[in-house]
Design a protein that fits this description.
39% strand, globular
C-alpha cells in the first residue's frame, strides 16, 4: 500500500519471496529491505505519535503501524479524534477495509517509516 503512494507498487508476494529480508522466525530485517523507489528510514518499537504524524504530513514519506501486540501491520491515512482519545484511520491489508488502529486492534506497539527515493 505504501509503495503505491509513490507509483512503485510492489506486490506483497514479491516482498515475501525475498527470504534474506526475514529472520528464521519470519520477522522483517528492516535494514535489508530493498524495495524499488523506497528507502527504509527507521523502526520504532513504541507508539511515537510525533514520528507517525511527521510521516503522515510529508508527501515524500509514509509509515506503517504495528498493532495487535506486534502481530499485524496497518497503513495509516490520518489521525482522528475519538471519544477515547486520538486514533488513526487506516487501510487494513488483512481485511481490505478501513479501520481505526486502536479501536480495532487495541494498541499500537510501533511503526516503520519509509521515504520515496
Amino acid at each position: 500500500m505504501g509503495s503505491a503512494k509513490f507509483s512503485h507498487f510492489v506486490d506483497p508476494a514479491w516482498i515475501a519471496n525475498h527470504v534474506t529480508w526475514y529472520t528464521r522466525d519470519g520477522l522483517i530485517i528492516w535494514n535489508k529491505l530493498d524495495i524499488p523507489g523506497l528507502k527504509f528510514q527507521w523502526r520504532w518499537y513504541i507508539e511515537n505519535d510525533m514520528q507517525i504524524l511527521l510521516s503522515l504530513s510529508d508527501p515524500m514519506k509514509f509509515c506503517i503501524l504495528c498493532v495487535h501486540n506486534g502481530k499485524h501491520w496497518l497503513y495509516p491515512i490520518k489521525q482522528v479524534r475519538m471519544k477515547y482519545g486520538m486514533d488513526y484511520l487506516c487501510n487494513d491489508p488483512w481485511t481490505g477495509k478501513q479501520c481505526y488502529a486502536k479501536a480495532t486492534y487495541k494498541n499500537i506497539v510501533g511503526s516503520s517509516h519509509f521515504l520515496s527515493r
